Amino acid sequence: MNASERHSFLDEKVALYNHPKFIESDPIQIPHQFSIKEDIEIAGFLTATISWGNRKMIISNSQKMMDLMGNSPYDFVMNHQMHQLERLENFVHRTFNSIDLVTFIKGLQHIYTKHDGLEAVFAQHQQPNSMQKSISEFKKTFFEIEHLYRTQKHLSDPMNNSAAKRINMFLRWMVRNDNKSVDFGIWKTIPASALSCPLDVHSGNVARKLGLLTRKQNDAKALSELDINLRLLDKNDPVKYDFALFGLGVFEKF
After folding, report:
1. 122: left (phi > 0), else alpha (psi -120 to 50), else beta?
2. Each residue's pLDDT tens digit, 33-77
3. What is the C-alpha to C-alpha distance for residues 67 and 246, in angstroms, rounded to an integer?
4. How far is Cα of residue 170 from the mean position of the Cα atoms in its chain?
5. Residue 29, pLDDT score
6. Contacts of 2 (CB under 8 A, 6+ apart)
7. What Cα–Cα distance (Å) separates residue 43 from each residue in 3, 77, 122, 144?
8. Residue 1: what pLDDT?
9. What is the DSSP letter of 50?
10. pLDDT tens digits for 200-237?
């Protein structure tokens, strides 16, 4: 297909998958249980953190985290007592274990207590067409608390050539206002134009088949290439095409 046909094809797929039905089988359903901004942020952040592997397991273990926090994630983060952290000791999702979860709870408390919350930290270092430096700076701020070095691997750093798929997905959830009630659009200090596609094996393979990506690795350099091409399709909301690329890959085996 030529460039015009490809553009129309992708727009059709965005309309198909950027739909409330998408929520039913996606980890985004976890933060959709909440209505308070901070609950949505924390539920979304923790869910995105463990979003690799089997999607049913991701959803199940994300719900388990919410249950362990009494389904009041912000209140738990801010007001938990040390003995309450003991209930987390059996949690595990692949290589993300209870020690990591406790560290993330403490890291989030640090973000809200010392840095005015998740949105403020991510907004501080944003650039006109990129959130990648912001993600890197966020990781530094998050791990100002005492922690085991191994836990750092659960937050990607684009400055180390990572595509940072899970954090970019979380930012899409928080920033995009899609008028479809899928993405939340509750962060007003970051424009959708600055977002990047959550690049993974599915979206990467589809992007290559469609001529949007030539680099073989799914890394920061590939993300930069994909960013450029998606911004040619829609400079104000380039990451909406995540729905098309992901849907084509996962649901249509394109």
Report:
1. alpha
2. 999 999 999 999 999 999 999 999 999 999 999 999 999 999 999
3. 29
4. 2
5. 98
6. none
7. 39, 11, 16, 21
8. 84
9. T
10. 999 999 999 999 999 999 999 999 999 999 999 999 99
**DSSP SS3 for 92:** strand
Strand partners, 92: 97
Spatial separation of the C-alpha atoms in residues 168 and 172, rounded to whole Å? 6
Residue written as token pair 């005492």 = 146
The label of the residue with tokens 């206002």 reads 177
CB 50 within 8 A of CB 43: no
Neighbouring residues of 172: CB distance < 8 A, sequence distance ≥ 6: 183, 195, 198, 239, 242
The answer to whether 202 and 250 have CB atoms below 8 angstroms apart is yes
Placement of tokens 């400079």 in the chain: 235
DSSP code per residue over 172-205: HHHH---SSSSS-----SS-GGG------HHHHH
* Strand, helix or coil for residue 116: coil
Which CA distances in Å does 51 have to 6, 9, 12, 167, 184? 29, 28, 26, 10, 18
Question: What is the token pair recorded at 95?
Answer: 């290589």
Q: Nearest to residue 117, comparing CAs of 129, 109, 125?
A: 109
The token duo for 124 is 């501080």
Tell me if 238 sits within 8 A of 231, measured CB to CB.
yes
- Report the predicted TM-score, pTM, of the whole model to 2 decimal places: 0.96
Task: Using the structure block, give the residue that is written with the tokens 């750092």.
Answer: 152
Where residue 199 falls (left for φ over 0; alpha for ψ -120 to 50; beta otherwise) is beta
